[in-house]
TrEMBL record, chain A:
<feature type="transmembrane region" description="Helical">
    <location>
        <begin position="91"/>
        <end position="111"/>
    </location>
</feature>
<dbReference type="GO" id="GO:0022857">
    <property type="term" value="F:transmembrane transporter activity"/>
</dbReference>
<feature type="transmembrane region" description="Helical">
    <location>
        <begin position="186"/>
        <end position="205"/>
    </location>
</feature>
<dbReference type="InterPro" id="IPR043429">
    <property type="entry name" value="ArtM/GltK/GlnP/TcyL/YhdX-like"/>
</dbReference>
<comment type="function">
    <text>Part of the binding-protein-dependent transport system for glutamine; probably responsible for the translocation of the substrate across the membrane.</text>
</comment>
<dbReference type="InterPro" id="IPR000515">
    <property type="entry name" value="MetI-like"/>
</dbReference>
<feature type="transmembrane region" description="Helical">
    <location>
        <begin position="132"/>
        <end position="154"/>
    </location>
</feature>
Automatic annotation (TrEMBL), chains B, C:
<dbReference type="GO" id="GO:0005524">
    <property type="term" value="F:ATP binding"/>
</dbReference>
<dbReference type="InterPro" id="IPR003593">
    <property type="entry name" value="AAA+_ATPase"/>
</dbReference>
<keyword id="KW-0472">Membrane</keyword>
<dbReference type="InterPro" id="IPR050086">
    <property type="entry name" value="MetN_ABC_transporter-like"/>
</dbReference>
<dbReference type="InterPro" id="IPR003439">
    <property type="entry name" value="ABC_transporter-like_ATP-bd"/>
</dbReference>
<dbReference type="InterPro" id="IPR027417">
    <property type="entry name" value="P-loop_NTPase"/>
</dbReference>
<dbReference type="Pfam" id="PF00005">
    <property type="entry name" value="ABC_tran"/>
</dbReference>
UniProtKB/TrEMBL annotation, chain E:
<feature type="transmembrane region" description="Helical">
    <location>
        <begin position="148"/>
        <end position="168"/>
    </location>
</feature>
<feature type="transmembrane region" description="Helical">
    <location>
        <begin position="56"/>
        <end position="75"/>
    </location>
</feature>
<feature type="domain" description="ABC transmembrane type-1">
    <location>
        <begin position="19"/>
        <end position="207"/>
    </location>
</feature>
<dbReference type="Pfam" id="PF00528">
    <property type="entry name" value="BPD_transp_1"/>
</dbReference>
<feature type="transmembrane region" description="Helical">
    <location>
        <begin position="188"/>
        <end position="210"/>
    </location>
</feature>
<dbReference type="GO" id="GO:0022857">
    <property type="term" value="F:transmembrane transporter activity"/>
</dbReference>
<keyword id="KW-0812">Transmembrane</keyword>
Amino acid sequence: MRYTAFTSYDIVLLAQGLGVSLALFLATTIIGLLLGSLWAIIRFYRVPVLMQIVTVFAELLKNSPVLVQLFLVFFGLPAFARLNVTPVEAAVITLSGNTAAFVYVIAVSAIESIGRDQIEAARVSGLSRWQVLRHIIAPQAMAFAIGPLTGLLVNQLQVTSLISVIGVVDLTKIGNILNLRTLKPFIVWAIVGGLYYVMAKLVAFGGATLEKRLRAHTAWKGL
Amino acid sequence: MISVRGVRKAFGTATVLDGIDLDVHSGEVVSILGSSGSGKSTLIRCMNGLEKLDGGRITIDDFDVSRPKELAEARKRSATVFQLFNLYPHMTAVQNIALAPVEVLKIPRKQAEADARALLDSVGLSARADAFPAQLSGGQRQRVGICRALAMKPRYLLLDEITSALDPEMTSDVLAILAKLARDGTTMVFVTHEIEFARTISSRIVFLDKGQLVVDLPTAEFFAADGGMAKPRIAQFLSKMRKD
Amino acid sequence: MISVRGVRKAFGTATVLDGIDLDVHSGEVVSILGSSGSGKSTLIRCMNGLEKLDGGRITIDDFDVSRPKELAEARKRSATVFQLFNLYPHMTAVQNIALAPVEVLKIPRKQAEADARALLDSVGLSARADAFPAQLSGGQRQRVGICRALAMKPRYLLLDEITSALDPEMTSDVLAILAKLARDGTTMVFVTHEIEFARTISSRIVFLDKGQLVVDLPTAEFFAADGGMAKPRIAQFLSKMRKD
Amino acid sequence: GKLDDIRAQGTVRIGVSLGGEPIGFRDDKNNPVGYDVDVATMLAAKLGVPVEFTDVSGDARVSMLVSGQLDIVVANTSATLERAKTVNFSIPYNRAGLRVIVQKDAGIAKLEDLAGKKVVVGRGTTGESFLKKSVPTAELIYTDNFSPDGVLLLQQKRVDAAIEDSSLLDYLATKNDTLVTLPGLYSNDPIGIAVAKGDPEFVRWLDMFVSDYIQSGAYDANYKKWWGEKSNPPALTPLW
Amino acid sequence: MTFDLTILAPHIPFLVKGAVLTAEACVLALAGSLCIGTIVAALVTSASPVLSRIAYIYVDLFRNIPFIVQLFFFFYGLPEIGIYVNAFATGVIALSIAGGAFTSDVIRSGILSIDPGILEAAEVSGLSKPTIFRKIVMPIALRTSVRPLGSVFINLILTSSILSTITLNELTGSAKIVASDTFRPFEIYAVLLVAYASLTYLVSLAIGALHRYLNRDQTEAA
Ligand SMILES: Nc1ncnc2c1ncn2[C@@H]1O[C@H](COP(=O)(O)OP(=O)(O)OP(=O)(O)O)[C@@H](O)[C@H]1O
Ligand SMILES: Nc1ncnc2c1ncn2[C@@H]1O[C@H](COP(=O)(O)OP(=O)(O)OP(=O)(O)O)[C@@H](O)[C@H]1O
Ligand SMILES: [Mg+2]
Ligand SMILES: [Mg+2]
């Protein structure tokens, strides 16, 4: 009765799961990065009211479990707001918001890591706040942020696995399915873990390359 | 014209500027002398709107630097060279200099960078134009800082101890450049410790002591035995000058 | 004794020090003059082991600074004041000064902090002892940097343009302190742009030009018309000095 | 009503549990198969629309009904009074009993022997509440999915016993010679089709469907298909 | 759909027990990952190629493999080679190791943004490398990285909910049980949200205070 052998169909299934995870990760990362940066900019400009809202909202998002947020969006929106959301929509909404909240925190501390003296020099030469942000702060903040950001994205990549509970068939869910069928957890999780590892490596590699470029001006000699 | 009226500035409980009045008319070169910690840098920082005043008013060409809108105008007309250079570490010398001209004055990048190179050349730095600040010697950084201010072709130049890291050769080169700018009508406010320098270049000298402006005299009068020198505080200050 | 033998140092393709030989005997005070970018700071950085030599050898009291073990010994005997101060931004003035005595010399913290306050007092900074670097004026930071080096009671002092941010009053105070240390036998290597300063304090003057040591003479000879002044490069350099 | 909604939306979204054979699992092509899957397929056929399966586990199956993410759940759901407060059940289309599986060398011969032993239960299953009541001193070890987590714990001898549906455990015992099942069946739970509250007519239609399923002989055939020709399908009473 | 929290009243003690377990695991894991993270960051930025290589491999491995896979490996995998560790210890160790990888990354970033001149000043004053690291590098690095560190810690707390999969009835595990007892998932989720938010908010507050303390020189006069 039990089909414990691995078949070629499993590869198709893994590929599908990988595709779903990857697509979801990319979509939520892009939205999250944009949204999180936007929030940080709002804070940088000290836009009244909006800034407070953003702070509270980001606090809320990053301080609660993604799983719970996911449930609230997926079950809550239809039940309380009469808005029907598909599992994929719910996943995109939740994960984007969550990523954005953490991006916001990183962006804020990166902005703060830049010496006040430089900002002063730039302001005095007549650069507007926006120009200071773009030419002085952003490039250096990026160099600072790229480390934590890579860490965050790698983490978010794994967080995408939570969405299987609302029926999105992502890579982790595929792992579960195969594990259940074959009862060979080590092979299955080694393969699934390996795939996540490869995806994460790509993210980390991108981060490291970017960081090297952004830190061209300082040579860290090591301690 | 730069007008400073009754300016007060305190950090916490320490009053650093205590009712400063000072007018700098167009074309004038005014030197600010005073001992370390007397508030010279702070006064400069107030003039370009980096510190919030705790009292009084500063205008540049009638633009009040306490008002954000007017401050932007004031800053377009003035440029500052900082005591500690404050270069952008992620940009090369040329990029440091060209940034504001491109962004604020909307000069095409090509042009701005060519101008920057010309400026660097005039202070003997053409060979280091593409180095990052961390790769420059102290004096080289200071020269980049000076070029960065000059690139804005400002009407008003605020200079905070710009010769501190310069050797005598370089100092005289930079002075020559500034003297030429002064002849062309650029108004300058100098903070300096080099009294001879002040004597050579400035038309007026003011003396700060513990946040108060105790002397404000034309250069000749300041150094006259019956002028500034008559004040004991200044006589004491000047007497400590190396006798050379 | 500090011995520099055939030292070469290049950044990329640019040779910054090109075969330097220099001996500084115990009790001597040697000034290094030279134009901006001539390699003065780099030479100091080589002496305290911050730059890897591309050639040659430097020893302090016979400890080779290229060997990690010996470098530690060399550093215990020497102290450096930096051109750009390099204060620890997260520590107050007192903490900046007391750190190394506590950690390296194992002086009890209480004692070390009391010593630090005494030092600060001697440079007129007792009121700012508990301020962070960001809250200090340029000259104040420089004085903290000087105190930090003195707190180690070093046999060898390496000083890179320590007076650049000091006003004349302060300069003469600091000089007095250093002169006393020199009398007590501290060996010093100065980098300076102030020729008069060099003339007053140093027993020997060396002149760097484009990474080469072109002159090494006792002070009196250096300034003698038939000594250093006879060399055109130096005459040119000195002639640019402000005539005062 | 719901019937019209389903026809209007063109497919029926049915939640099934693919957590263990023969109720629901995946074949070598990873397609859902099993007893429940067959029931759901028949149900969709009677509705006249194609089916869209979602693999649901644990408490999500109830939540997804309530929030309207699923139309129907055919997921081996025991029809308890507690659950009936939240969702509606059809008449039973199957029955299941709780069984206990133990390590051969653990010295457990009857239910009472579980006292003080480590027993695997699924969070929120009927097995959990049964054991809490009948052997309060047993040490419960919670997993979200009996398979594979509970199975691994048993295989690694880190627990003494487990309580689950007989269908799963009987199969497991035949595969592991260190494990045996206790003879008793500790319940006879009705398994019902669950739907959201608020549409009695739809429940009535489902009752008719199950009655038809039983009477037409489809039940017998389906049961024997999955539990073997020699098995005895539990007696089910049609309403209609 | 009604929303009635009073239903949960009888289950509160049970949930509190779960929350306490979560808190215990998290406090231990936070301390663990801070220790590991600091040491690893020191190794990564050290001048020794061997040490930094080793540290790099550690970070690489534990940051890039999903936590749940690591956890399963520790809990279900190690027994296969004869290593039995109980669920709680497994959870704390796994969290510390994974958290340590993320922590070290953040600290490394902070270290790299320190002005090299400051380190040179420390070096020439004869301070030993460990002292420089303790007294200069770490305090300055922490100044800039407290906030991202806060995020990592918060993430760690939230990640601890995965421990429910290795039989621990921490907050999430208990909530799942209560949810299936009461069939009131919304109320449970709401409680869960508040519970985790409170736990993490405590961390946020502490981080905020620490941030202000470490950056006190940036504000105007003391
Ligand atoms: N890290 C570096 N990378 C590349 N070039 C460097 C680096 N550090 C210094 N240089 C170059 O080496 C030369 C010597 O620098 P050094 O700092 O020794 O000069 P200096 O004599 O101290 O000058 P100043 O009086 O201006 O301080 C300069 O041309 C400088 O640009
Ligand atoms: N952010 C700050 N917080 C507290 N005190 C400050 C701050 N900035 C400056 N001060 C203090 O204000 C006083 C005046 O500083 P200022 O920088 O104006 O001095 P200065 O005249 O430029 O001295 P120098 O010649 O040494 O550069 C000093 O005592 C300094 O310690
Ligand atoms: Mg100043
Ligand atoms: Mg130098």
